[in-house]
Amino acid sequence: MLRFHWFLPTYGDSRYLVGGGHGTTVTAASGDRPADIGYLAQIARAAEHLGFEAALTPTGAWCEDAWLTTAILARESEHLKFLVAFRPGLVSPTLAAQMAATYQRHTGGRLLLNVVTGGEDHEQRAYGDHLDKDQRYRRTGEFLTVVRRLWAGERVTLAGDHIHVADAALDRVPHPIPEIYFGGSSPAAGRVAVDHSDVYLTWGEPPDAVAAKLDWIRALAAAAGRTPPRFGIRLHVITRDTAAQAWAEADRLVDALDPAAIAAVQAGLARSGSEGQRRMRALHGGTVADLEVSPNLWAGVGLVRGGAGTALVGSHAEVAARIEEYHALGIDEFVLSGHPHLEEAYWFGEGVLPILGRKDLWRHPFRDTAAAGAARVPFAH
Length: 381
Fold this sequence. Notes:
Elements lengths: L2 E5 L29 H14 L3 E4 L8 H8 L7 E6 L6 H15 L3 E5 L5 H6 L6 H19 L4 E4 L4 E5 L11 E4 L3 H10 L2 E5 L3 H17 L6 E11 L2 H13 L3 H11 L5 H10 L7 E3 L2 E2 L12 E5 H14 L1 E7 L3 H11 L1 H6 L10 H6 L7
Parallel strand pairs: 1-2, 1-13, 2-3, 3-4, 4-7, 7-8, 8-9, 9-12, 9-13
Antiparallel strand pairs: 5-6, 10-11, 11-12
Helix pairs in contact: 1-12, 3-5, 5-6, 6-7
């Protein structure tokens, strides 16, 4: 059964593309919506109502702190889980394990964790972290080793290359244990994913590239004698009643971009140390030409946004078909977003999810099966 998650834009939202991430400056063409609790709560409640299981909240200097924001939003919703992105090494593993346990108790087990090692040296240095990328991945592995053992109720002493703890223990372990979501395209990232993640996340590349990446993780797991993690993908969506309406919306978004803003963002992203970011930039080359890089896969978001830079664009039936195509490769979880996030959640939730529900690929996680199966919406495309 497929699982769908939405996104909380804790840097602000807009009817236009909002840029930022990976050390770039947040930009928007116009019509910004501040990321206050009132607006984010609207998105969280809409996501919960529509059947998204969790909401990803980003990390970095470009947005609000994910732990604090989602802790507040947990009181604004009933069932929605929060996929909290955080960077290991900026707090101790013992404190992070304790924070997760506290979060689970106060929210009734609604925490998922997106571990972000950090691909930008200059951004990490701003936080006081001066390790290089490979060192950061080794630290992430040591960090998650401590956290996992603490969550298992062990008393932990570890003297690693980067993490040193002595006689660490938790008085109360979290229940349930938060699932770890992790992504990365470099060799160092693959090793951490196989050793520590429950879900390996990839950004939205064309299906053949995604297939190769999943095969890479499967091979690493086999070599290590491990079961591979589940697989998820991070995408934006623009879905409408007809393909023409969806592509008109994509055109509107890219037509509103200032060429100077595109150039500035791309110059910043060019210095990224992230292999995944390099792959995202290669899809569009910094130009507005030929942005449909695979059927219904549009690279326009990546012109002004670091990180996930592609969107599924098309009619509800077309977007559902592309989701099925990724699912056939092994993708079971989809972390989605759209501009603006409130309205686009409804377009997807009322247009695409019922199609997948009728094919027995999805059911509403917070309603009984009969109620979810009875849901119908008047979309014919």
